[in-house]
Specification:
471 residues; ligase; 6-stranded mixed β-sheet; 10-stranded mixed β-sheet; nucleotide-binding; alpha/beta; Mur_ligase_C_dom_sf; 21 strands; peptidoglycan synthesis; UDP-N-acetylmuramoyl-L-alanine:D-glutamate ligase; 3 domains; Mur_ligase_C
Amino acid sequence: MLRRAHLIGIGGAGMSGIARILLARGATVSGSDAKESRAFLTLRAQGATIAVGQRAENLDQLPEPPTAVVVSTAIKETNPELAAARERGIPVLHRAEALAELMKGYQVACIAGTHGKTSTTSMLTVALQHCRLDPSFAIGGDLNESGANAHHGTGSVFVAEADESDGSFLVYAPRVAVVTNIEPDHLDRHKTPEAYSAVFDRFVDRIVSGGALIVCADDEPAAQLGDRAADRGVRVRRYGRSATGEHDAQILDYRPHTEDGGVVRVRIGGRELDVTVAVPGEHMAVNAVAALLAGVELDAPADQLAEGLASFGGVRRRFEFKGRANDVRVYDDYAHHPTEVAAQLRAVRQAAGSGRVVVVFQPHLYSRTRIFADEFAKALELADEVVVLDVYGAREEPEPGVSGQLIADRITEATVHYEPAFDRAAELAAGLVRPGDVLVTMGAGDVTQLGPEILRELDARAAAGAPATGD
């Protein structure tokens, strides 16, 4: 079915990964997107035909009609290429369905959860690569080691990030399924916290016979999911400080470094070992333990997995270092849920040492901003200075009365600045920092563009002799 695949929105993280794997397997790949992206360079070099702009004619201009058109949830039925494909009887697959096709014949490890799935998937991939297993993988972010979000490997394992946001992970059939945590999110689609939680139970039902569910014992909803799965006869493995049992992974201690991660001591398989994690934050160490346990379930040796985890250099947009200017370190992070924001700001505080923490936060989705405004404000108060931008609406239409101001007005324990004009944000942020501070741009939208702009503004101020006072 995927011999000649046309991907609508081919520049997206998930779609470009599928295109990479298809090309590596010898398929003919075409696609389109609304605008150019950095993903196009690699895909075109590998042989993909990519059109900028989405039009029905893009299908007509191909040498042969595609055997399948692949779409993501973001593609609306009114999309001209999708409408043309349906009119012509071309099979249409959701991105997850296409990925499930690519997984056939492999031992599949799927990493799911509200938070941490990209980092955990990436850690497991790097650890298995260190064990020379050369897994295929599809991740929602680019590995810093390879700069890639997907790869067709020569080994028997396929590692994939499993997306619960639209329930599309229910088409996978994993041998190993990891659930890092469960916390209500994506309620614009799932409507209620109960419905959101229930989709994880259905995901567990997709585990193949003889497979295993791995859950975080410290997260109560995930632990309860594990208990329900065990009652249904699923083999369950647990990790975290609360985990017990010879075959689980119990965290005994975590020793942070000032700037660059820390060491977590784990009891696993009846023995203890230290795992070095080169990215800061105890939540990242917990993710590393999840990856370690998943790797052991895939029959990789724990010692080699630990060595591989020590070499993990992070994922693009997961506390990604963008540069230093005027003795200010600038990072970028994808956190867009209150729990993620709080966890990452604690890690930033660790990295800052005696310096202050300045965050430029862009809310993502009007519904999420409205539902979690109080929680966002509390999380952002972990910083010293907060710049709140306006909402990045993504797939949603604006809601009356919902803007970044909704969050900014609730922040009382930090200095807050609401800046609805995106083009003024870099100058504002550069004027707030002082030498020794750490600044992080944060959110799932185009806030990622601000890091380089802030660094240029800091350089310009230093060159002009402007004092960096943070006033």
